Amino acid sequence: MNNKIALLQDKIKQAHAGGGPVRIESQHKKGKLTARERLHFLLDEGSFEEIGMLVTHRSVDFGMETEKYPGDGVVTGYGNINGRLVYVFSQDFTVFGGSLSETHAEKICKIMELALKNGAPLIGLNDSGGARIQEGVVSLGGYADIFYRNVQASGVIPQLSAIMGPCAGGAVYSPAITDFILMVENTSYMFVTGPNVVKTVTHEEVSSEELGGASTHATKSGVTHFSCSNEIDAINHVKRLLSYMPQNCEEIPAPLAYSLGQDETRITLNTIIPENANQPYDVREVISQIADQDTFLEVHKDYAENIVVGFARLAGRSIGIIANQPAYLAGVLDNHASVKAARFVRFCDCFNIPLLVLEDVPGFLPGTDQEWNGIITNGAKLLYAFSEATVPRITVIIRKAYGGAYDVMNSKHIGADMNYAWPTAEIAVMGAKGAAEIIFKKEIQLSADPEEKLLEKEKMYAEIFANPYRAAERGFVDEVIEPSATRTKLIKAFKMLENKVVNNPRKKHGNIPL
To answer: pTM for this structure?
Structure first.
């Protein structure tokens, strides 16, 4: 028996050694942790249970039968994060560059299936050179097996992808299907075709970092939701992100202890909006006053900055916030902002996270660039996402709510449960100046002083429409509130809505304008 136990311990030791000390040292020199080190920092101490430690590849071509490593380049299993069950896989770049083989894929699929059966989040730590070319189509099939399971799990359990190194070719599509992607600056990258292929086909000279680094995807493409300074930062982001989510679609996010009954008035909100309606302000200052202190976690911070989305807590409960940002492009909706917000709304709706919309939108961004790149269908995605959402939905109109953008930003007409407006709200088809120019065009042209006449008519229109009271009279706004009372109103309203049930028409699924 002792000999058999010794043999087992030797095999475990081999598995823990990965690709060996030389390759581990090379990994460390790049500023990267090993697959097992990442899991050590991610999971609660002593909670990790490994599955498939002794799996090896089955390839016999190109001399592969002589080079086998227990685990085959990926560490898989389950453990806890802050006491919550999660399933994990962590690719090991020290073994065949983390390349995906048939058995490597089978290990990941097994973990995905367990996560789905048991209703717990799935976290992937990606660090792979791509498909293992020695296995040909078998490794490509492994990718497809993973993609299929990603889709089956979508909207059932949260799926998070942390890109800790290369992720190229077909490998990028698994993270792309998951709910959130995190990347590490300077050591991770994602692209479908690498710099060499790009140079051959388009003659562009571009580095891996420029083509698909964390900064590129955080600012230009929007592929990644979080750009992290190092791997520990990325792991801490995963933990914090997970804290706002439930285990699965059948549960609600766990609330934190909060003592109700204290004064929730925020006097600062009464002076946060500039007197001049065309002057910008940072909507994050509004969010910080409404949400519980230091709980706002912004998503896609550096992408489509004219809209701000993220998670926060309100009286200890997890909520999703979508807010127009007047400090960038006046807070207009454009192609990127619409898609960014729509994706976030749908995630929150999947996992029973109530939605708060802070509205200050002058409309959709005009121009050929927007029209030719599909602002009609992209704007419709946000409209569709809100209309489809069945979670509690509350809108606060802070200032401007013009045109079709008023409808799209969670208006009462598309199913919002409660709509509040500040006294500074302006709810109209368009701004007073533009409206006056159209309505009183002839009168202004025939006037002795057209400029003076325009100002007069602009003021007239503003007095009638550039306020929240016409909408309140119609019931499109439930209440016009003092800004300082916003947090109090929202706590009570979300509490009132916590048992909301919506029975939608039976269907296979809707056809969102993709």
So the answer is: 0.94
Burial class of residue 142 (count of CB atoms within 10 Å of its CB; 0-12, 13-18, 19+): buried
Task: Calculate the dihedral angle through the C-alpha atoms of 368, 373, 375, 378, rounding to the nearest 10 degrees.
Answer: -170
Hey, where are the domains in the chain?
A: 2-243, 267-429+467-496, 432-465
The CATH number of the structural domain formed by 2-243 is 3.90.226.10
Q: Which residues are catalytic?
A: 169-170, 404-405
Burial 450-481 (b: 16+ CB within 10 A, else e): eeebbebbbeebbeebbbbeebbeeebbbebb
What does each C-alpha distance from 274 to 15, 207, 269, 398, 428 come to in angstroms?
Answer: 62, 44, 11, 11, 19
Question: At residue 84, does pLDDT exceed 90?
Answer: yes
Contacts of 36 (CB under 8 A, 6+ apart): 16, 18, 75, 90, 92
Higher-pLDDT residue of 193, 241: 241
Alpha helix stretches (DSSP H) within 213-358: 214-216, 231-243, 283-290, 335-350
Nearest-5° Cα angle at 128, 514 to 181 = 40
Give the whole-angstrom CA distance, residue 273 versus residue 468: 15
Tokens standing for residue 428: 């109209």
pLDDT tens readout for residues 193-212: 889 889 999 999 999 999 99
DSSP code, position 100: B
Question: Quick check: do 2-243 and 267-429+467-496 share a fold?
Answer: yes
For 392, the enclosing helix (H) or strand (E) is none
Amino acid at the residue 219: T
